[in-house]
Design goal:
By secondary structure, the protein is an alpha/beta fold. The protein has 7 helices and 10 strands.
Length: about 280
């Protein structure tokens, strides 16, 4: 009988954030094709009987092509195997799932998508950032800094005051991203947070502003950047000597951010529409 392919979201890194369905599928899979950014802690929970294959692709590094991954999924399923295509975060967000689903559909292979906790939500939870705090943010934009096949931030103009940006895959292009953000109308004083390896034991959180972003130390992959007023109002943060906000500076940055020209100071922030 033909096999089946599951596109499985591994979540941001903590194995306990796998969904129950993802866990069940992984325990029954005969083959697991995983991305390079899936952490070892999750790979350790895979059954010893499974064939585990790293099909990860790193930006700038030569490796297996997407066409080869597609062909491998089809081949394994035609051999009658249960195949788990394990992707970091959620399969449908910056994960090339569209190409893989199209390939499986054309080959007549049965498949199913199992969603996962995307990195933005895991990182926001770790950093205690309410991405859509109704007092300050009713709009959220997920964007990738990876240039191939997309404009990144270059198409953003006249950004609304109540927008929170989450920038996936920033690499170490902090100076370039800071320039693009400011060109889009986001002030140098707007808070941002660089969050690396969210929800894992190696997690780091560095809080800064758009103007100071180029001075941020390079973060280990996977990482992302949260940009917006909400990034400056996280509660009960531990102050570190490496550049994170003190509560006093935090209040000052927030005050400046709210006074930036891209805000409508005549509008009551508490009266704005919100995303619940």
């Amino acid at each position: 009988m033909p096999g089946k392919v599951y596109l499985v979201g591994a979540g941001p890194g903590d194995p306990e954030l796998l969904t129950r369905k993802a866990w069940r599928v992984l325990q029954s899979a005969g083959v697991v094709l995983h991305d390079d950014l899936v952490p070892q802690e999750i790979l350790c929970v895979l059954p010893p009987t499974a064939q585990i294959v790293n099909v990860g692709k790193r930006c700038g590094a030569k490796g297996i092509s997407q066409a080869e991954i597609n062909a491998l999924m089809v081949q394994m399923a035609r051999e009658g195997k249960i195949v788990a295509r394990l992707k970091s975060g959620d399969p449908l967000l910056f994960g090339r799932a569209g190409e893989e689903m199209e390939s499986l559909h054309q080959a007549g292979i049965d498949f199913e998508v199992i969603p996962g906790v995307t990195a933005a939500l895991g990182a926001a939870a770790s950093a205690r950032i309410s991405l859509t705090d109704r007092r300050h943010a009713s709009r959220m934009v997920f964007v990738t800094a990876h240039r191939e096949g997309g404009p990144g931030l270059t198409s953003e103009r006249h950004v609304a005051a109540d927008t929170t940006y989450v920038i996936y895959m920033p690499g170490s292009r902090y100076a370039e991203l800071a320039a693009e953000l400011q060109a889009a109308g986001i002030g140098a004083e707007i808070p941002c947070a660089v969050i690396s390896r969210a929800t894992t034991r190696d997690e780091t959180i560095f809080r800064t502003t758009v103007g100071r972003l180029p001075q941020c130390p390079a973060a280990a992959s996977p990482s992302l950047i949260v940009v917006g007023i909400v990034a400056g109002i996280a509660a009960h943060e531990t102050v570190t000597p490496d550049g994170e906000f003190s509560s006093k500076l935090n209040e000052e940055v927030l005050r400046l951010a709210l006074q930036h020209p891209y805000n409508d100071l005549n509008e009551d922030l508490h009266g704005r529409s919100s995303v619940e």
